[in-house]
Design a protein that fits this description.
Layout (H helix, E strand, L loop, with lengths): L2 H32 L8 H14 L5 H13 L5 H29 L7 H30 L11 H12 L1 H4 L3 H6 L2 H21 L5 H31 L8 H12 L8 H42 L1
Helix pairs in contact: 1-4, 1-12, 2-3, 4-5, 5-6, 5-9, 9-10, 10-12
């Protein structure tokens, strides 16, 4: 593993961690809307619950009210642990593979920057590898996010994954893999837009982009990607949570959703997903640029320490 690839992978993982924590309530709202969960949350729902509690809760103590409000807020963070594990894993793998592939292609083509074709190839390779490896984590995350009130037993990500493997086998852990692989096109679109706009700005300004530039370009790239691929997010979420005896594939589920619920069902939760994805992508690109400098210095320091030890 080269130092450059590891630096990109670590920076990508850390930036993904920050963005996921900051935007996770929107992830919860979007996922619940996609799966048509009874626990579908919105700001209006929470406000409505608060009003009802205030009307009938005058007799309740202040502590009881605070606990109820805290529980309402915590609903937005159901499955956060698995999401953090998933985003760190997928970003590490994605950025490592992306940088590894892009370095190989630029050397092969004797170019300093990626062409549109090479941007697509790089994104596809990185996307396929990261999606396959982390799919079980995202299945667990979806189930933890949309769990019903009857599922009061608290389980961590590993326990949920083991339970799925026990009850449904490997097939359950890799549910929704087809739409997940189709969604490889989402980061491909995002990174292609980002890279090409970045190259244009660098060419015009004769200098590298700033963290603020990365924030804007990353957000715009994500906006284009989400609008292009959102129905597959809905299908993936539904396949993650479908009943054990539900043998429907992607095409059959798509036909059933269109027949029973209409086209609009494929776009449920789009507003929350758009906001979450655009903000998250902006934060990822911004903090990745910030973390790159810090991680690079740490890697250099580690190499210097290793060199001194070898000399001694």
């Amino acid at each position: 593993m080269s130092q450059k690839n590891i630096t990109h992978a670590i920076s990508g993982s850390l930036s993904g961690l920050v963005s996921m924590v900051a935007t996770y309530p929107l992830v919860t709202m979007s996922t619940n809307a996609q799966t048509n969960s009874k626990l579908s949350l919105s700001a209006e729902n929470i406000k409505g619950e608060d009003k009802r509690e205030n009307n009938k809760g005058k007799k309740n103590s202040l502590i009881t009210k605070l606990i109820k409000k805290l529980r309402s807020v915590l609903k937005f963070y159901s499955g956060l642990e698995s999401a953090l594990l998933g985003i760190v894993s997928v970003n590490f793998i994605y950025y490592y593979m992306y940088n590894l592939t892009s370095t190989h292609l630029t050397r092969k083509s004797n170019s300093k920057s990626l062409t549109v074709k090479n941007s697509v190839i790089t994104g596809v390779v990185a996307g396929i590898v990261s999606r396959i490896v982390t799919n079980p984590i995202w299945v667990a995350n979806t189930r933890m996010t949309v769990k019903t009130k009857n599922e009061s037993e608290s389980k961590n990500t590993l326990q949920v994954m083991l339970q799925i493997a026990k009850d449904e086998g490997l097939k359950g852990l890799f549910a929704g893999l087809v739409p997940a692989l189709i969604l490889v096109s989402s980061p491909v679109i995002q990174f292609t837009v980002f890279e090409q706009l970045k190259n244009l700005i660098v060419k015009l300004r004769k200098r590298n982009i700033s963290s603020a530039d990365a924030l804007i370009l990353g957000s715009f790239g994500k906006l284009v990607a989400i609008l292009s691929t959102y129905p597959y997010y809905t299908l993936r979420s539904r396949m993650h949570t479908k009943e054990e005896d539900d043998e429907r594939g992607t095409l059959k589920m798509t036909r059933d959703v269109l027949k029973d619920e209409g086209v609009g069902a494929l776009y449920r939760g789009l507003n929350a997903k758009l906001l979450q994805s655009v903000v998250s992508a902006g934060l990822v690109f911004y903090f990745k640029e910030e973390f790159m400098g810090v991680v690079s210095k740490l890697m250099i320091s580690v190499d210097q320490i290793k060199s001194k030890k070898r000399i001694l």
